[in-house]
Records
---
Amino acid sequence: MSSKKGAKCEEFELRRGPWTLEEDTMLIHYIARHGEGRWNLLARCSGLKRTGKSCRLRWLNYLKPDVKRGNLSPEEQFLILELHSKWGNRWSRIAQFLPGRTDNEIKNYWRTRVQKQARQLKIDANSSIFRDALRCYWMPRLLDQMSLADSSSNSNPNPNPIPQQVHNTDSSDPVMSTSCYGQSSSTNCSMDRLPELAPSPYEDPFLAYGLDALDSAAVPAVATDCAAGGGGSDWEGLWSMDEAWHVRKQHEEECGGGIFLQ
DNA sequence: AATCCACACAACCGCCTTGTT
DNA sequence: CAACAAGGCGGTTGTGTGGAT
């Protein structure tokens, strides 16, 4: 079977690796004429020496007009952390709540930024300790950045406008019940009990999750203190050395000084 | 100036699901 | 209902780039 496959590949001399400008142009023009979908047909008829899969990926992750480029905003980062805590590595599902962002981009963000922090602390990124750390230190900081940006650009319309709404302090709210900022979430952040929310690209995620409820009052003192960021000059790290030490120590206590990742 | 290293991101691979015949 | 093809998804790898040494 695999040899047959290989022979097929050779027969059509399928190209691999980075896409050229010419290939991009061909793909864009073909989709402009015939629309998306039927990727294998597209690959055969467009003149591209690529697999249908490759064409699909290139279009969805890079060429599609509504693909957003550039750094993730604090709002987007916050959403990624929040949704990942609920759904785990369901990147495409998470991406549905970040218009213009692809699952690939979100996955890369998680691996390069978030998991990097876990590695530095020598903690499993999926551990409850690390999740707590995200909630106590990182997410409040993002909230802080969001409010700072908000207050400094009152006259400047937000590119991703978040509709004003009534504050939701209902404890049954998915975010408030599972996120428990600053509290120990090790008991109630289980992936087994993910909220069954119907994701929709048209639904405002902040509205859906009641994220407006996460004002400073909702964040515990320790978290807001950290978020206030005494001493954080530029926002490079996600937490200070003190915070990292605290997380690490907590982890040591919980694991009895044992099981660190290498 | 050269080399090394870490990072970010694009692209590929394999598996699974879904739709069609 | 089975077989097959296509699409979708998550994990992994490859590569270009910028900073550090």
---
Amino acid sequence: MPAEGGTRRKKAVSELKRQLILDAARRVFENEGLEGASLRAIAQEAGYTPAALYFHFDSREALYAELLSQSLEALKASVDRAVSKADSPVDRLRQAALAFFRFYERSPRDLDLGFYLFRGGMTPEGLGRDRDAELNQRLAVTLQPIADAAIELGVEMDQARRLMADTFAHATGLLLLAHTGRIRIFGVAAAELMRNFVDDQIARLTE
Amino acid sequence: MPAEGGTRRKKAVSELKRQLILDAARRVFENEGLEGASLRAIAQEAGYTPAALYFHFDSREALYAELLSQSLEALKASVDRAVSKADSPVDRLRQAALAFFRFYERSPRDLDLGFYLFRGGMTPEGLGRDRDAELNQRLAVTLQPIADAAIELGVEMDQARRLMADTFAHATGLLLLAHTGRIRIFGVAAAELMRNFVDDQIARLTE
Amino acid sequence: MPAEGGTRRKKAVSELKRQLILDAARRVFENEGLEGASLRAIAQEAGYTPAALYFHFDSREALYAELLSQSLEALKASVDRAVSKADSPVDRLRQAALAFFRFYERSPRDLDLGFYLFRGGMTPEGLGRDRDAELNQRLAVTLQPIADAAIELGVEMDQARRLMADTFAHATGLLLLAHTGRIRIFGVAAAELMRNFVDDQIARLTE
Amino acid sequence: MPAEGGTRRKKAVSELKRQLILDAARRVFENEGLEGASLRAIAQEAGYTPAALYFHFDSREALYAELLSQSLEALKASVDRAVSKADSPVDRLRQAALAFFRFYERSPRDLDLGFYLFRGGMTPEGLGRDRDAELNQRLAVTLQPIADAAIELGVEMDQARRLMADTFAHATGLLLLAHTGRIRIFGVAAAELMRNFVDDQIARLTE
DNA sequence: TATGAATGAGTATTCATTCAT
DNA sequence: TATGAATGAATACTCATTCAT
């Protein structure tokens, strides 16, 4: 048992260190942006040598991927929390969509991260099919409450899926616009447009 | 006349070479993506030494900017062409929005290019305020037909601007989804969703 | 004769252009210093293409050499002027030494230029033996009034030559010290030290 | 102890490698001169990739600065050694001045190095005020024995400082002359002139 | 598990010079 | 005489990654 316990403790310590590195990476990302988040910079922020990170992650891309993974986890938690507080299908739909929007509105670097790695999916090899499939899965699961609520409202599966895609698209489009400052061209506020969009969708489903 | 003609011919040749370099840059962009489009790579594709490009462009960023500029020009031409063929405000609105969408649907690298340089606007200094302001201007002008058509339909200025922003956002969001292959998650087609979105907007304005 | 006259005029024009380029080079040197005085920069200041300068000078080094040559000419003129105003051997000696010092005190870039090309003399090939010998000759001629005055005061040739070398060395040493700001370490003024040095030399010769 | 020993040995090895790079840099400096001493060239001479040097030095300028630092250290040691062997104030003054001269007479590249980095002090920002101030400090400390000896001889502080500056100036002036071969113009020997200069100064102080 | 050292490929840009026109 | 275009070599420096210790 003591040996076993030692092993378990070692694993826990290892897990902790991994997380400390990821936290450091997040900080670098937030402060320096995509371009500045080199492995060197992350290692330094974490108090490590670049070489040391390779004991915890296979490559820089793997580290990034894990960062995105955690980001998506946080996103899902955020959406789920909002949904759980709602008490009607309509409200669940609205809250899920708005929680999604707000999550990225508040931490724009997470959006950058998503764009960066999502784009990777286009390349022939991508980040590996497994990783790509996993990202898709996470995304689908996160947005699922929207489809669920729609179905509760009597909508067909097909239509529910469209709603998910539309909501995702509108939110990310508006966030992009807001995030790059371009939205000022139109003299409007992204959050307000998002609310309107969601209300319109609901109106259409329930009319 | 011979002297003049010589000068004129020289200018034309120079202009042509410039364009050949830009074409090479486009190809590199298409094949290698954002990261791979180094000055070296562009020069090689164009059959030049890196140093030679500096005779034609002030810097790598200047070359990129010109690439984007031409892309936006083509976008505007595409939208204008679609609008000119339409014969009613409703049709003009629809065709403008769909032309915008189709342009980027067909040449996804132009979307990347836009994202790349648009993002520059976020940095404190940006690529220079002038360039940033110019990008905004071009975008506003390109989407203007949408607002014009809406106003013809009796909509307030305020609402027309919202419509522009919403259309831009929805289109880019869907394109991002399509472009990265994520849209498959939802089992829907981006183009169809865009058409539906536009139709919904029109229905709302005209009901 | 018209042909001849045309040739002469052509030569004069050519000479003038050469000089305009050299003037431009001086300005660049003064404003940008040694490092900044690239051929490109000089050409631009002169209103030419870099390539055009090659019709007027064999190489960048040749242009620099000519610049130094003119600088030494101006130095000699400055010394000669001072000497011609003096009315005794002692005064000639003093004025020659001080004029030399003041020339470089006032235009430190000329000193830089001298250092730069003088140093070239060390390299195996140098700027070519001819050029090197010419520089030596110019320097000797410029300082000759010091030796002449010393001889007038009854000093041996040998001693007179020592005096020239010492004066040159002390002046350039002080100028270097002044020019790099190091003289502040000692809390003294270069010009005053130079005056003292000259007075000491004179005292020794005449005592 | 073994662990400690390992660390200590590692540090020693590291220090050694650093020094080997500096030695390589010195050689390049001696053979190729200022302009040729690029980071590439130094790395090659040391048997390294350019990138490897960045592990040992922060930048090319930092490497240069360390080279100069070691040179000044050697200079000071040389002067101190000479002074410690002298047994009277007059002798200390003479030996300090001549040791300074001889140091640079024997290794002219050290003089070049000094000129190169000293000149940095002229530029608005310099190599950083710290570095500049440090250079000044080292120089002052090195020449201090001259001032000390003069004060022992009953000279005022003010006059002692002048003597330091004059000695430095005369020595560097003569060295420049000798070093570039110009001194041949005057048919005299730099070392002899330096001895005479020092003797004259001593005569003046003690008469 | 972590480090120090090293690599090799890469970055944009500058330079003096050449040559056809 | 002058230009526009092009070259080839050079610059310092950064990057992700590897490996012996």
